[in-house]
Amino acid sequence: EDPLIALGVDAGIPIIDNRLLRLELYDDVAFLNTKRAFNDNTGKVSEEIVKGNAVGLGLSILSALFKVEYRTFEEGFRPTVFDYTYESQKRGVALLGVPQFLGLEPEKKGQAKHGFFSMLAWRPVPKVHLLGTFEDYNNSEPKLYLGITESGLVPQMSFRAFYTKRDIGEPDPDYPDKEGSQDPSFFKDLFRLDEKSAFTVRIGYQVYPNIPLEVAIIREYRFQQVKVDGETGFKPIHKTSFELGFNLNFARK
Q1: pLDDT, mean over the chain
Q2: What gap in Å lies between CA 60 and CA 65, rounded to an integer?
Q3: What percent of the chain has a predicted confidence (pLDDT) above 70?
Q4: With helix as H, strand as E and coil as C, how does the chain read?
Q5: Would you tell me how many other CB atoms lie within 10 Å of the CB of residue 184?
Q6: How many Cβ atoms from other residues are within 10 Å of residue 215's Cβ?
Q7: CA–CA dist 31, 6 (Å, integer)
Q8: Rounded to 5 degrees, what angle do the CA atoms 231, 199, 209 make?
Q9: What is the per-residue pLDDT across 20-74, written as a single tens digit (0 to 9) for each?
Q10: Where residue 201 falls among pLDDT bands split at 50, 70, 90?
Q11: Among 162, 204, 59, 78, which residue's Cα sits nearest to residue 118?
């Protein structure tokens, strides 16, 4: 398999910058070798470099950070390779010559993307972190990610929860409403656990105060890509597991 190669650069200009508020205009550009072109004359596959660009506005105030970006991606560009759904889709059908872990669908012409991405990161109290992202592009359905982490707020306890929903509002033949419609509304589909959802909760407890030995219980609701009769789809998986290990929290000075 050919390796995945990524190159990126970003630049920002502060508009407002003081102790309480920072407002910044920035631009990110990245290049990936995720696209392959097939030559009908030679029968060989050649590698093409594709580009993605994001122009954004970032606002940082007290313990909160908000970003909104307008993104443009060339055909074959993938903005987030290793996201929360990586484990679920890395076994997917890969492109010819593309590393299988990308989990990309077969290429189609005219699949350049443009749309908006937004992110909110907030620390309401010390040791509690909230993160939310939402993205929506011209040729795909919206995608949502939510996460919360807590460590040390309650002595010897830790808590993490993550939720991802993709293709929000996409027609679903397995979930018709009372009128028989298979096209759920955006808000009805937003937090409905199905094959487009992934949800994990982890609660940990440090057994001894001065020893980082931790026992944890994990509840997962996620999806796995399957192929039946030549058709690719997803099936939900419910899983409860336990962990025993060392939790090392590295403090930043």
Answers
A1: 79
A2: 4
A3: 74
A4: CCCCCEEEEEEEEEEEECCCEEEEEEEEEEEEEEEEEECCCCCCEEEEEEEEEEEEEEEEECCEEEEEEEEEECCCCCCCCCCCCHHHHCCCCCCCCCCHHHCCCCCCCCCCEEEEEEEEEECCCCCEEEEEEEEEECCCCCEEEEEEEEECCCCCEEEEEEEEECCCCCCCCCCCCCCCCCCCCHHHHHCCCCCCEEEEEEEEEEEECCEEEEEEEEEEEEEEEEEECCEEEEEEEEEEEEEEEECCCCCCC
A5: 19
A6: 14
A7: 6
A8: 145
A9: 899 999 999 999 887 666 566 666 666 788 899 999 999 999 889 999 999 999 8
A10: very high
A11: 59
Q: Mind listing the pLDDT tens digit for each residue in 109-122?
A: 457 889 999 999 99
Pull the structure tokens for residue 219. 């509840």
Structure tokens at 89: 């889709």
In this structure, the dihedral spanned by the alpha carbons of residues 239, 242, 245 and 247, taken in order and rounded to 10 degrees, is: 70
pLDDT for res 102: 37
Which pLDDT does position 61 carry in this prediction? 92
Q: Which residue has the tokens 């509690």?
A: 128
CA angle in degrees (0–180, nearest 5) for 34-190-148: 80
Least confidently predicted of 75-79, 93-97, 157-161: 93-97
Q: Which amino acid is at 239?
A: K
